[in-house]
Design goal:
Strand content: 15-25%
Number of domains: 2
Keywords: Membrane, Transmembrane, Transmembrane helix
Number of helices: 10
Shape: elongated
Largest sheet: 6 strands, antiparallel
Distance between the termini: 142 Å
Order of helices and strands: HHHHEEEEEEEHEEEEHHEHHHEE
Length: about 375
């Protein structure tokens, strides 16, 4: 009897301990299927989407896509142009040009053309080449090919004024050179292009000084039928400092022969269709005779330049023998440009010094007529 009672008590404690024992691994960490079932049971129900709503969204997407395609085709069918700006050196003696296709300013020192050496600055003038290309599908008419740049602000918080300039194109006088065009209005067929050669330094100097210390020059063109001006890439805009005087390494001084050659070539190219002649020889001769002493009065300046222009050994290099008006234009332009740029001229850079007997002498009646620079 006692054994039976003890066995019953032992069984009772054994049942209570087993019920209070910790959970097994499977009980403490339920399996994934059971977890997903419990989550799906507690998650809110998603409303069913009717097939009509899906069709409406698809129709809306197709309508927007069709509208975008229509706008794109409208843009592609209209006139489209690409404008590029490149630096050019024009040889005023031979008439040939050297174009730097990088489109940057100043002329980079690592350019392949620089490895052969640049010509003397008295033999070349610096110009800009503007290329207008029709990349559209239809013919178009372009006009007012020139430059654009930003000026001063009207008010403190106002927009900068945008300036435009349309310089007269320059055409090198060579029978076999048909690359550069004349005029200000051109008709371009699809995949056609036109190239103009213009003087940009006159535009740059007329806009100085600038509050920012430089002028950011871009090529521009107007297309018939469109209101906005098409400009060259902003990334390749020419940032020309106010102190720069040449595109060759961005130097701040120029020799006198460079000013003489550029002024003489510009006047002759704008005034006549004849060849330039060897203006480089004329520029070196005049530079050597002035010999760094620029007369202070008008009469002295005129006498110094006419002494070279009337020389029999020099006059046949410049085509103004039978054009008296052209000779006068060259004379006045030389006096004006040299006087305006005398602070930017390196008077000590004389390539071909003149003999002592041919040097410009001081007038006896006015010993102070020449002022050394």
């Amino acid at each position: 009897m006692e054994r039976t009672c003890l066995n019953a008590i032992a069984q009772l404690f054994t049942r209570s301990d087993s019920s209070a024992s910790p959970l097994t691994r499977t009980q403490r960490r339920p399996t994934w299927p059971s977890t997903l079932q419990s989550m799906s049971a507690t998650a809110p129900s998603v409303p069913n989407v009717a097939p009509a709503d899906v069709a409406a969204w698809i129709a809306l997407a197709l309508s927007v896509l069709g509208l975008l395609v229509t706008v794109l085709l409208r843009y592609l069918d209209g006139p489209r142009a690409r404008v590029r700006l490149r630096a050019v050196l024009l040889n005023v003696g031979l008439g040939g040009t050297v174009t730097y296709n990088t489109g940057t300013w100043p002329i980079p020192g690592s350019h392949p053309a620089r490895e052969q050496g640049l010509p003397d600055r008295g033999d070349v003038i610096e110009l800009a080449e503007i290329v207008v290309e029709n990349i559209g599908r239809h013919p178009m008419t372009v006009y007012d090919v020139g430059f654009t740049w930003r000026g001063k602000r009207r008010t403190r918080w106002g927009r900068r004024l945008r300036h435009y300039s349309v310089p007269t194109p320059i055409t090198p006088q060579r029978e076999d050179d048909m690359k550069y065009a004349k005029g200000d209005r051109f008709r371009l067929e699809p995949a056609d292009m036109v190239t103009l050669l213009v003087d940009y330094w006159s535009v740059v100097r007329s806009s100085r000084p600038n509050r920012s210390g430089h002028v950011k020059l871009r090529a521009s063109v107007l297309i018939a039928g469109r209101r906005r001006t098409k400009r060259s890439r902003l990334k390749l805009a020419w940032v020309i400092p106010d102190a720069a005087q040449t595109a060759v390494d961005g130097l701040e001084t120029v020799p006198l022969r460079s000013v003489i050659a550029a002024t003489t070539a510009r006047v002759i190219l704008y005034a006549t269709d004849e060849r330039l002649g060897n203006i480089g020889y004329f520029a070196r001769d005049l530079e050597g005779r002035i010999a760094g002493a620029w007369p202070a009065d008008w009469a002295g300046r005129r006498a110094a330049i006419e002494a070279v222009m009337d020389d029999e050994d020099t006059m046949h290099f410049v085509p103004y023998q039978d054009a008296r008006m052209l000779k006068t234009s060259v004379l006045i332009a030389l006096i004006s440009d040299i006087e305006a740029r005398k602070a930017d001229i390196d008077w000590s850079d004389i390539l071909t010094p003149a003999p002592a007997q041919d040097a410009v002498q001081t007038r006896d009646d006015d010993p102070a007529s020449e002022v050394p620079i």
